[in-house]
Amino acid sequence: QVMMRALRTAVQAQAFHLVYQPQVNVRTGAVVGVEALLRWTLPDGSSVSPATFIPLAERMGVMLHLGTWVLREAARQAQAWRQAGAPTRVAVNVSAAQFQDPQFVAAVRAALADHLLPAELLELEVTETLLMHDVPRVRQVLQELKGLGVTLSLDDFGTGYSSLRYLQAFPIDTLKIDRSFLSSEHQGDQVILGAIVSLGRTLGLQVIAEGVETPAQERLLLALGCEWMQGFLYARPMTVDELDLWRGAWG
Ligand code: G
Ligand code: G
Ligand code: MN
Ligand code: NA
To answer: What is the ipTM, given to two decimal places?
Structure first.
């Protein structure tokens, strides 16, 4: 209850900001994009994890509002990087409330138009769970989004229940392998990892591994044919200023 009241106040006071985590092609060294991640800072300076406050925001019915702010703020920042001569594709996590909103495609179109952002600099991350319901509508929405020119990635891939048929039916560009497949020592998870990478390749999808923390994980992924990576091994989610510094050091 205390948390709920604080969240309601935070939404009004705009006590949120985005941090950005680089996604790199380890073979070429290119920064292929960044993922925007939402942060809520409390008045005392501490911060609450989105894993905690996003489900709360969903239940309170403010996630649509918050998610729309994220989308627009990410588009604004992507345009700022572009104008600074460092065009960077920004990936935004889409919440259930947004995806189910009949105005979602219009909101994405407006975010691009209002910030004069080329659509290829925006990626939308959806989860398998979002895609499970009402397949014809989901397909329609995804096709309209693709029609705008944005790219689509399937987040936390491998942890949900999406059927392989959906994968073919939906115009997804990228699979994001869930980090649970990396963190585990189980031999079986490495087999799944390999299977996801080949599945992606067979379907003509880009594959990116999330949660890469060690050189051993990087080696394994490269051996399996996955070159795109995101994780603490390269960088944590960072503020814009920190990211600029990181970019300079990354080269
Ligand atoms: O950044 P962090 O690891 O703390 O994020 C925790 C969870 O919150 C992740 O599942 C992430 O996808 C989700 N998340 C972070 N930012 C956003 C956001 O802007 N919108 C939505 N819908 N989820 C987010
Ligand atoms: O669900 P989603 O994939 O959007 O969540 C992204 C979350 O993963 C972010 O909260 C981010 O902070 C976290 N994350 C990113 N890289 C790593 C990593 O290398 N290790 C761990 N444990 N978490 C990571
Ligand atoms: Mn994500
Ligand atoms: Na993920």
So the answer is: 0.97
Angle between helices 215-224 and 187-202 (to 10 degrees): 40
Q: How deeply is 233 buried, as exposed, middle or buried, from its count of CB atoms within 10 A (0-12, 13-18, 19+)?
A: middle
Pocket of ligand 2 (CB under 6 A): 21, 37, 93, 155-156, 179, 210-213, 231-232, 237
Q: Whose CA is nearest to atom 22 of ligand 2?
A: 211
Here the tokens at position 249 are 């050091």
Domains and CATH numbers, the chain: 18-39+60-250 (3.20.20.450)
Q: Which residue has the higher pLDDT, 129 or 187?
A: 129
Ligand 1 neighbour 71 (Cβ under 6 A):
no
Q: Is the CB of 93 under 6 A from ligand 1?
A: yes
Alpha carbon of 35 to ligand 3 centroid (Å): 7
What is the model's pLDDT at position 140? Answer: 96
Whole-angstrom distance, CA of residue 184 vs CA of residue 190: 9
Reported as a pLDDT band with limits 50, 70 and 90, residue 87 is very high
- Tell me the CA–centroid distance for residue 232 and ligand 4, in Å: 14
What region does 149 belong to: left with phi over 0, alpha with psi -120 to 50, or beta? left
List beta partners, residue 38.
18
Which one has a higher pLDDT value, 114 or 7? 114
Q: What atom in ligand 2 is closest to the CA of residue 49?
A: 10
